[in-house]
């Protein structure tokens, strides 16, 4: 069995470790390129979400490289992600590929059902072996998320911003190669220290920008044009509202392990504008935007794929949130036709607006 999975941000580091620790041969799809996108667009429904199209491109490239089993997440609720797996399975079967697809649904107290899913992958797996593999993968996912948060906070202040990015990328490479949890923890601690000790700019007052939206577009640099890096190199402190480990806690485990205090805080913040779940991260987009305003952020960037229903709902509400809170919000919707030059132009205009507002605040 040769297993693959979709690309999404730094997810490969943790998922590859989990599967390899369970004794599987893993064939990750190549990093997302224009070829990946072209393959997905060619073989996917025109009005499908961009993430589905890229998933198809990922799978075709991985299957052509020898993979024979695809692991895909499932979902519940109004977001179309819930049936991605079945649609993708049908597309690939119609293309003539011979493969097995295992769709991992949210557990929802059905731990035995989850265990049986794993049995499709592994015929002789114990809970103990699964626990050990999960702990190593989780340690990597947590370390990567923690370092991403740190570099997004530190990069703007660094005298050499490109060096901060290079250190982060080197950390990812070393964490990916690490074999033991203690090694992973030491690497994270070491890079945390090095990043925080970088020479900093003096008398520097950076802008602060929060990023909200649909998780795939928020996490995948190939889709959002590496927006966190671009903002950081322009001297902006960035906070991304979504992380991979947070998504796993909420999506796979649902209420078992997620931070209920934070979840309730987001729901309460969104309540004046949106009182119920609309699928995906639509409610979180509104709530997190409100919280960024409370934390004195200068602006918020909202990222979403074209035709994403939960984020369309959020996008229709954000102008009122922006007006009520006097918080500039830039919504960027992406599909296969979105060009990097156009996104950068909008981003720079938004940054200019934030700088003017920031300077007015300093004068007052």
UniProtKB/TrEMBL annotation:
It comes from Halanaerobacter jeridensis. Residues 15-71 form the DUF2229 domain. This is Nucleotide-binding protein (Sugar kinase/HSP70/actin superfamily). Transmembrane segments: none annotated. The keyword Repressor does not apply. Keywords: Coiled coil, Kinase, Transferase. The keyword Endoplasmic reticulum does not apply. It comes from the Bacteria. Residues 161-188 form a coiled coil. Signal peptide: none annotated. One of its GO terms (molecular function) is kinase activity. Pfam families: DUF2229, HGD-D.
């Amino acid at each position: 069995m040769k297993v693959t999975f979709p690309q999404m941000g730094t997810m490969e580091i943790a998922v590859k470790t989990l599967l390899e620790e369970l004794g599987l041969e893993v064939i990750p799809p190549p990093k997302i390129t224009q070829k990946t996108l072209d393959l997905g667009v060619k073989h996917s429904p025109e009005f499908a979400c961009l993430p589905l199209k890229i998933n198809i491109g990922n799978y075709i490239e991985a299957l052509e490289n020898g993979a024979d089993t695809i692991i895909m997440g499932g979902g519940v609720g109004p977001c179309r992600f819930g049936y991605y797996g079945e649609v993708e399975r049908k597309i690939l079967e119609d293309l003539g590929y011979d493969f097995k697809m295992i769709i991992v649904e949210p557990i929802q107290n059905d731990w035995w059902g989850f265990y049986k899913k794993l049995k499709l992958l592994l015929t002789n797996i114990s809970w103990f072996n699964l626990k050990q593999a999960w702990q190593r993968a989780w340690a990597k996912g947590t370390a990567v998320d923690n370092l991403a948060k740190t570099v997004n906070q530190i990069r703007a202040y660094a005298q050499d911003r490109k060096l901060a990015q290079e250190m982060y990328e080197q950390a990812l490479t070393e964490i990916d190669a690490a074999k033991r949890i203690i090694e992973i923890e030491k690497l994270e601690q070491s890079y945390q220290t090095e990043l925080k000790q970088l020479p900093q700019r003096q008398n520097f007052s950076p802008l602060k920008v929060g990023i909200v939206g649909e998780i795939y577009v928020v996490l995948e640099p190939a889709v959002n044009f590496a927006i966190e890096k671009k903002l950081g190199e322009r001297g902006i402190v960035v906070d991304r509202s979504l992380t991979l480990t947070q998504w796993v806690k909420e999506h796979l485990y649902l209420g078992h392990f997620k931070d209920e205090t934070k979840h309730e805080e987001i729901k309460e913040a969104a309540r004046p504008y949106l009182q119920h779940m609309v699928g995906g991260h639509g409610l979180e987009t509104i709530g997190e935007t409100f919280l960024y305003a409370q934390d004195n952020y200068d602006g918020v960037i909202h990222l979403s794929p074209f035709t994403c229903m939960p984020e369309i709902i959020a996008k229709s509400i954000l102008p009122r949130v922006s007006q009520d809170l006097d918080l500039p919000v830039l919504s960027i919707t992406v599909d296969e036709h979105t060009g990097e030059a156009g996104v950068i132009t909008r981003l720079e205009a938004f940054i200019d607006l934030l700088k003017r507002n920031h300077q007015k605040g300093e004068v007052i």
